[in-house]
Write a structure and sequence with these properties.
By secondary structure, this protein is of the alpha+beta class. Helices cover about 15% and strands about 35% of the residues. Strands 1, 2, 3, 4, 5, 6 and 7 form a 7-stranded antiparallel sheet that branches.
Length: about 130
């Protein structure tokens, strides 16, 4: 009986750790095309296949087109945020090449807690 209880507690600890990791703030700042981060900044093309580590990341195949809406800045400049069809998420900037720049000037704004949650079927989750 105690072994089953120990296994359940271990499972809960592992589940909680995964949840905390998936809601981790990736950066305190981001750059956008406007203060609300609603305008697309650029159109890029994937130069490699990419499979993200969790639901906050955008998965894509080489050659797919992605619209970029923000770029993390300061402590984590390697991650950009964009969409491909209905999918939206983070991806490494070195996995794409810029095809077209759509804005003239970037605006740096603080990130929000909701920037780092997963969006599934119009609902936010923390994995």
């Amino acid at each position: 009986m105690s072994r089953i209880l120990d296994q359940r507690i271990l499972f809960l600890v592992i589940s909680f750790s995964a949840s905390v990791q998936s809601t981790k703030v990736l950066s305190e700042w981001k750059k956008c095309g406007d203060p609300e981060c609603e305008k697309a900044m650029s159109r890029v093309q994937a130069t490699t296949d990419y499979l993200g580590p969790d639901c906050r990341y955008l998965n894509f195949k080489t050659g797919e087109e992605i619209m970029v809406y923000s770029k993390l800045s300061r402590e984590n400049e390697n991650l950009w945020t964009g969409s491909k069809g209905k999918d939206f998420g983070y991806f490494p900037r070195d996995a794409v090449k810029v095809e077209e720049v759509l804005i003239g000037e970037e605006v740096e704004v603080p990130t929000k807690e909701t920037d780092f949650l997963c969006l599934h079927e119009d609902k936010y989750t923390s994995e």
